[in-house]
Amino acid sequence: MRILLVEDDRLLGDGLQVGLTQAGYAVDWLRDGEAAVMALSTESFAAVVLDLGLPKRDGLSVLQWLRGRHDATPVLILTARDQLEDKVRGLDLGADDYVLKPFDLDEITARLRALVRRAHGRPEPVLAVGEIELNPAARSVTRAGQAVELTPREFDLLHLLLENTDRVLTRRALEEQLYTWNEAVDSNALEVHIHHLRKKLGNDLIRTVRGVGYMVPAGATP
Amino acid sequence: MRILLVEDDRLLGDGLQVGLTQAGYAVDWLRDGEAAVMALSTESFAAVVLDLGLPKRDGLSVLQWLRGRHDATPVLILTARDQLEDKVRGLDLGADDYVLKPFDLDEITARLRALVRRAHGRPEPVLAVGEIELNPAARSVTRAGQAVELTPREFDLLHLLLENTDRVLTRRALEEQLYTWNEAVDSNALEVHIHHLRKKLGNDLIRTVRGVGYMVPAGATP
DNA sequence: CGTTTCTCTTAAGGTGCCCCTAAGCTGGGG
DNA sequence: CCCCAGCTTAGGGGCACCTTAAGAGAAACG
User: Is A176 close to B104, i.e. CB distance below 8 A?
Assistant: First the structure.
């Protein structure tokens, strides 16, 4: 599985190359947009990891050029948190997904995996417990086949719980995952979201573990 | 599930040992690279948690030596954020994963779990004595395969006892662990919990040692 | 740009469960 | 036979969690 990594920052690129290699990809690492276009015009990749701020030729320009050729190679965009506009424009131009800096390597590989899988027309793996199903790619949830509308927070929370069935997630752990590393909430927001989830999905799915946190048993809701 | 922890910082090591033990692992804690090599050459571990900055023998050197012997024991590296090069070299040398300092205990246990599972497709670590099994991650207890409902205190108490099978735990020791360093109880609360545990798990599991404390024999309840 | 809708947080009040307490009981050891 | 450590039982209080409601803020709409 061959991947093109386009990143000018030496440190970041180095880390990514190693990490992605570790994850089982063959990684070609280029430092500027010009080189990226050259590579893409002659070679074929399973996916492209594309930084936006590049020398010689901007990342968005590379993306636009790629899509102009009707090349459907999956593209994962790396963008800083304060450049949301770029992200939006990137998605408009045909990016398949984006990751905000500073990012976690696991997140990159996870999204990349999803991207490649999607590109090959293979269905996304869904997380299922009992009659509840969650589709991470579509961000959709069904209960006994019926679609259930969840807000973003609710979805993320449920996602976390379903990824860790049979494991108790402490309140701390959940909050740290939901609220990105800062501005921790000091109220019972988490409880409220849990409450909403139970209301929409039934009371049996999420078990309260007093004094610790929450858990969804793998064999819940008969 | 036996784990080798190699960490020279006393405070950090202490915290890790407690946390990992809490997570259900049997932890051997060594303070320098020399000792780690000694241990690894004679004993077998499910995984190694390895700090890089070590006395006598550097962590990377230990890792290199280990891989040189074609030992595939999973290795989780602890590294400071400003030593990315080391991390990279570590991965090159065959580390399986790394965690940046300062880290979260939950993250360590999560990665460790993934690592061990990856290494030989095994499920969660459990503490087992006779027909009693305790799963720290799920905070669940079974007796002869049947789920047993325990209250938080009961669970914590049982957890402590099972972590120290064949060792007599004094009333003092138990109370200090259960009640976080303050607000000691001056009554027989402990006895009450023991009573409840016996009621739910059978009278043979927990042995009373008159005048000292309690103990669960490793080969209890046939 | 005002209006509307939707989501998330905050806060307050309620409730059920757990845990401590205490007091009487039991049995082993001196 | 007595004493004391541990066992047993029951109840009340407190706290963790639940539930509900409403306001702030952001996104969507015209």
Answer: yes
- In B25-52, which positions are buried (b, 16+ CB within 10 angstroms) versus exposed (e)? bebbbbbbbebbbebbeeeebbbbbbbb
Q: How far is B170 from chain A (nearest CA, A)?
A: 25
**B135: number of Cβ within 10 Å:** 19
For residue A181, which phi and psi values (nearest 5 degrees)? 65, -10
**What's the whole-model pTM score?**
0.57
d(CA A198, CA B12): 39
Task: For residue A58, count other CB atoms closer than 10 A to its CB.
Answer: 16
Mean pLDDT within A131-146: 85
Q: Gap from B201 CA to C22 C1', in Å? A: 26
**Euclidean distance between CA atoms A74 and A87, whole angstroms:** 15
A 88-117 residues, CB < 7 A, strand C:
none
Cβ of B187 < 7 Å from strand C? Answer: yes
Q: Tell me the per-residue pLDDT of A153-168, one tens digit each, with 9 for 90 and over.
A: 899 899 989 988 888 9
**Min distance A25 CA to chain B CA atoms (Å):** 15
Cis-peptide, bond into residue B55, ω within 30° of zero: no
For CA atoms A12, A14, A17, A20, give the dihedral sign.
negative
A215 close contact with B: CB closer than 8 A: yes
Tokens of residue A222, six digits: 């008969």
Interchain CB contact of B176 with A (< 8 Å):
no
- What is the distance between the alpha carbons of residues A176 and B150, in angstroms, rounded to a whole number? 27
Give strand letter and number of the nucleotide nearest A193 (CA to C1'): C8
Q: Which residues 153-212 on A are within 7 A of strand C at the CB atom?
A: 153-154, 179, 185-189, 192-193, 210
- B153 alpha carbon, distance to own chain's centre: 19
CA A122/CA A188 separation, integer angstroms: 40
Strand order in the sheet with B140-143: B127-129, B132-135, B140-143, B146-148
Q: Answer whether B152 sits within 8 Å of A11, measured CB to CB.
A: no
Q: What are B100-118's pLDDT values in tens digits? A: 776 777 778 877 877 776 6
